[in-house]
Amino acid sequence: MTKAVSGFSKLSKEEKINWIAETHFSNPEEAIKTIKKYWNSDADLQKLHDEFIENTISNFYLPLGVAPNFLINGKNYTIPMAIEESSVVAAASKAAKFWANRGGFKATVLNSEKIGQVHFIYKGKKENLEEFFKTIKPKFFTETQSITKNMQKRGGGILDIELRDKTFDLENYYQLHATFETKDSMGANFINSCLEQFAKTLKQEALQFELFSEDEKNIQVVMSILSNYVPNCIVRVEVSCPISELKEDKHISQEEFAEKFVRAVNIAEIEPFRAVTHNKGIMNGIDAVVLATGNDFRAVEAGVHAYASRNGKYTSLSHAKTENGMFSFWMEIPLALGTVGGLTNLHPLVKVAMEMLGNPSAHELMQIVAVAGLAQNFAALRSLTTTGIQQGHMKMHLMNILNQFEATEEERKKVVNHFEKNTVSHSAVVDYLDALRK
Ligand code: MEV
């Protein structure tokens, strides 16, 4: 077992790598070589990445791909996607092209409210607390003036603050539940700074509030933090076309395809085991764009899945129907995204991704990201309800297998050629490669 290390963060990068290599690897030189192979030769760029987090030893590459031909609200986009899963970008591109020829994607931001809470314990009469909150509410706004000044200039700020009684669920537990508009920033720092000031105001003012008994004056703030659940920060995306224009696959009529597709969505609407995988497919598209544009994909993931269970049962994020000869497919999802601040101003590739998208506002980025999710879902369901997912998947995976076995250019050509007509499986590729090498 490895011994614990103390003062690790104070070691130099070189010392850290040496310690790790010596302590954890059977071949330390080889490990060091691999770690350093991923360093950037541009020292300034490397320093920038080193400083994003603590204890950086190297860079972890993900491919940055692009999916062109996304027609969204009449505007054409090339969407950057950072993702390791082999079939995602190809699927997005295919779905983009399919819908570009059928009117494209329509996207609308329904609202963009963010939420933050101060969680506190108050042991006393509820009426006194309500009176206290009413009296001091303006102070929450005035005492955060220095924080909110700039945001207000951009049209954002604190929207409202409510006192919420949660004592039914947890003894003596109350909240300040605050809503915010953060315009083009995701707003995490802004919201958390406001909340921490609310907490200070709450505690200080309580000490001076005359109606309070000595016990009541002693409000205990447990924590102040934004919520990644943003059910009022919703974007709606949709596609539709006459069923007669759905023709894509020679093995299935457009009517049968539309019916099977809607059924597949219905199944995800009522069956949580399927809904999770269905939504995972949506997140393939969403996370890839969120990551490429320097946004927080964990926050998005957490918020989206909470939204998918908002009615007490986990369900599909997307919906589909056929009506009067039309096929429609749509989704409403919460997305708290930023196009200024955070990594968006720091990471050179994020800047490239943003410029590729025409430097969108946060609202426009919400639309683009949601479209990438719906496109991905469409592509997955189209494969699943027609050819099955493995055909396309394994074709893309072929390259990974070839890389794993360090196939030469000539071997690659032969393998790709062979598997044009044969079913790809890991063992079939390995057997074919073996035969070639004999
Ligand atoms: C794989 O990453 C995603 C899918 O499983 C999504 C789905 O089943 O809808 C193909």
Automatic annotation (TrEMBL):
Alphabetical keyword list: NAD, Oxidoreductase
Protein name, per record: 3-hydroxy-3-methylglutaryl coenzyme A reductase
CDD domains given in the database record: HMG-CoA_reductase_classII (cd00644)
Top-rank taxon, per record: Bacteria
Involved pathway(s): Metabolic intermediate metabolism; (R)-mevalonate degradation; (S)-3-hydroxy-3-methylglutaryl-CoA from (R)-mevalonate: step 1/1
EC number assigned by the record: 1.1.1.88
Signal keyword on record: no
